[in-house]
Every structure is written in C-alpha cells, then in structure tokens.
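Section 5.1 Outputs to date
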Amino acid sequence: MINWIATANSIKGIARPLLSRFRVVVPTEPTVRQRLHVAKEIARRVAQAYEMDAVPREIVVALADRTPREIRMALEAAASKVLRAGRSRMVERDVAELGLAAGQSGRRLAVQVH
C-alpha cells in the first residue's frame, strides 16, 4: 500500500478531483494549556542545554503566546546573555531587553500565574 501526504496553506485553488483523493485535516490552534506545556518543555530543554537554573515560570508564561521556534530562539538568546553576565539564573529583564515581551506576536494569553 502506498500512502501520500500533501500539505497546503490553503485548499483554495486545488481541483475538486484531486482534493477528493485526500483526507483534509485542518489543525486547530493549541489551547492555552497546550501552549504553556510546549513553552515549559522548551524552557526545560534550553536550561538543561545551557546548564543553567530552571527558567522562571513568569518568563515561560510571557513567551507562551509565541511559536515554538520563537520561544526557543528567545530563550537561547536570553540564556547566552545570562551566561555572558556570569549568572546561572534568567530574569524577566533578560527576555524583555530582547524585545520579546508577552503579546508581541499579536496573540494574547489569559493566564493566571500562581
């Protein structure tokens, strides 16, 4: 058996005969909980890779509305800055100074930090 997979940003313009041969799957936006889980896991991996203290929850929450790639890049840039300063713990200022504050991706999360 041969399985084919095709991707498209939009199905507009795809001929019906061709489209009828595929199962169309439209992914949904992740929930707030899922976004937080992804951000937390990326933060854990970055902290481990840079051998530094765990990323504070406030930073994880602030970045959770961004794409996984943006989260990783922001945390890696902030981690480099932290290590250059001779510290092992990231603070909110390290991320904010990079211009990567919460909500700058155009999306907002409603999250209560405990």
